[in-house]
Give the backbone structure.
Amino acid sequence: MKKFLAIILSLILVFSLSACGEKQDNKVEEPKVTLKEQLQGIINSEFETPKNIIFIIGDGMGPNDITLAEEHAEGVYDFGLALNLIKNHGLATTHSASDEVTDSAASGTALSTGVKTNNGYIGKDASGNDLKTMAELAREMGKKVGIITDEVISGATPTAFTVHNISRTNTAELVNSMIKFKPDVLMGKDYNSVFMTLGEDEREIFENDYVVAKKFIGFKGAMESDPNCEKSFLGFLSGYSSIASDELSLCAELAFERLKNDKGFFLMIESSGTDKYGHGNDIKGKLNGVVTLDRTVAAALKFMEKNPDTLLIITSDHETGGVKLPNQDTKYLSDLLTVTSHTATPVRVFGVGKGTEYFKDKTVDNTDIAKFVIKAIKGE
Ligand SMILES: [Zn+2]
C-alpha cells in the first residue's frame, strides 16, 4: 500500500512539475503571422548587396496567365499568388535577333547574356560566337551554380544559361556539354535521356564527379552522402505536371541549402508547364503551371528572410498561347487560349532585393533584365 501511495505521489509530482515547468517557461506566445504577412514582411524588408542570385523563369508564362491563375488555378494560396505581393514589377519585350516572335533558345540566351541572338541559338550571338553565360560568369566570380528545370536538362532554357551550341536541337551535344560544365546542383527530368546520351569522357565525369539521385525522394540522402559538397549533385525529378506541384519548390529549398556558401550562388529555376500546356492547348494545365512557379517564388522569399543578401528575379522567356482575358461572351476557360504557338506579347518581370525598383512600372527589354542580373553577379 505504501509503495502504491508512493507511486501515486511521485506521479502527481511529475505531472505537477511538468505543468509547473510549462508555467515557468513563461513562453511568450509568438504572434500568429499569416503566410501573406510573412511574405509581405520579407518583400518590404531591407536588402543587402546580393551575394546570392535566384532567377526564376516561367517558360511561356504570359501576363494573362498570371492574372487568370489567381482566380482559376488549383492550389493558389488563400490570399492569391505570392507573385502578386511583389511591389517591384514591370514588363519586358522578348523579340529575338532573327524574329519578332522568339523561341526559348534565343530568349534564354538574351536572359542569360544580355545579347539578342537568332532563334535556335544557345549561348551564342547572331554570328555564332560564344557569349559568356550567367553560369560561366557566376563561376568566374567564385560563386556556386545551380540549374533546376522541371523539363530535361538539355532544354533550351537550362542550356542557354550554361553552355553553347549553334542549335537547340543538338540534344546529345547539349547533354554532354551540360554534364561537362558540372553545375554544383543540376536537377531535371528523365535519367535515361541523360545516361544513354553520354559520351565516353562525359560518362567518366558523370560517374566520378557527380552524386546522382534518380528520384526526388532520394535527393536529400544523396546530398548528405557528400556533405562537403565536393561533388556536383545531379537529381532527376518527375517533371512538370498539369496539376499544381510542390516538387519544384522542394527542389529549390534543397538547392538553396546545398549552394549556400561564403561567396554566394547563382541559381536558375525553370517552371515549364506554362509553355507545355500552352502548346498542348490545355489552359488548366497552363494556369496550374503558374502555381507551381508561385510556390517556388514563396520558397525563395522565405530563404531571403534569413538571407537578405539575395536577389530574386522572376520573369518569362516569352508568352505561349495568346491567352486572352475573359469578357461577357466567354463561355469556356479554354476559349481564352487562342493559339498553340509563342507570341510577341511582352512578359512580366518581378524583382525582390536591392535595386529592383528599377523594374517598377517600366517596360524593359529582356536583355536589360540580364544586364541587371549580370551587374549583381559581378557585385557592381
Ligand atoms: Zn520558352
User: Anything to note?
Assistant: The mean pLDDT is 93.
